[in-house]
Amino acid sequence: MFKMKRIVTAGAFALVAAGLTATAHAQVEIRLGHVGGPGSLFEVSANEFARVANERLGNRGKVVVFGSSQQGSDSEMMQKLRLGTLELSLPSSVMSSTVDAFGMFEMPYLVKNRDHMKKIESEVVWPSLAPMAEEKGYKILGVWENGFRNITNNVRPINKPEDLQGLKLRTPKGVWRVKMFQAYGANPSPMALSEVFVALQTGVMDGQENPLTQIYSSKFQEVQKYLSMTGHVYTPAYLTAGKRKFESLPKEVQDILSQTAKDVQPFVYESAERLDGELLEKIKAAGVQVNEADKDAFIAASKGVYEEFGKEVPEGGKLVDKAIELGAGM
User: What CATH number does the domain containing 204 carry?
Assistant: First the structure.
């Protein structure tokens, strides 16, 4: 009897030890959601991040990517980050609906090129915008890219702002994008990216505006006649976590994710530049008529949006001035 009791006790200790070992080596799953479709810059960027991060994490954790709005719209994923039901997301324009000052990236023709954006990242995003995001419960890990935005539609080529008069145009959620296109004479409506193809196909919307990678990967070339190269806004994308959930991860995992987010940025920029050239040719080959817009005319029509932003979002207005200063002579 005593011998049997000893065997049972030893077995119990073995089970407990095995459980502790399993717990010690339990792999943390880090879900990364984004709205980009197959072949989009978001997909390319997220997959490269996951590849590098998983090599570095080893058995400490695993990044699993969910694209094509599988985790919901940008707004829904931002809510999930706050609630801790999603670890990472890749928001872009929607950040201006969360922190007003991020609306600076809704200002037309603010960012001249990627070298200018690197300066803005260093001297505006990290010292000023990232802490504002933390106050709202978000932790920005890396500044990536959505890209330079252009307009597609089924009515006419867009050469000057007046060509947008009355056009039903889908925009992402962000008050300043709506205000900008209202100033140009369009009829803008915010809509989740996952809903846009059908809206264009059925005529609910005449057109939309997006970087070429989102246009092509969303197959808008199948339901749009005209692409006008306006380059009206450059939108960064932010690899973002919910602050509380992120800080609950093991410190080593936090460090690996943060460093990898920054290390992957050059790959993102290189991929963005390459895709811009490749996809323009593919969109033309699909039968879409492409034209270069009169950017000077759009810049002239944008003055009022800058003035209103400066009045309504004073801290954002100061950051816009800083960004303009950083681009002097570029």
Answer: 3.40.190.170
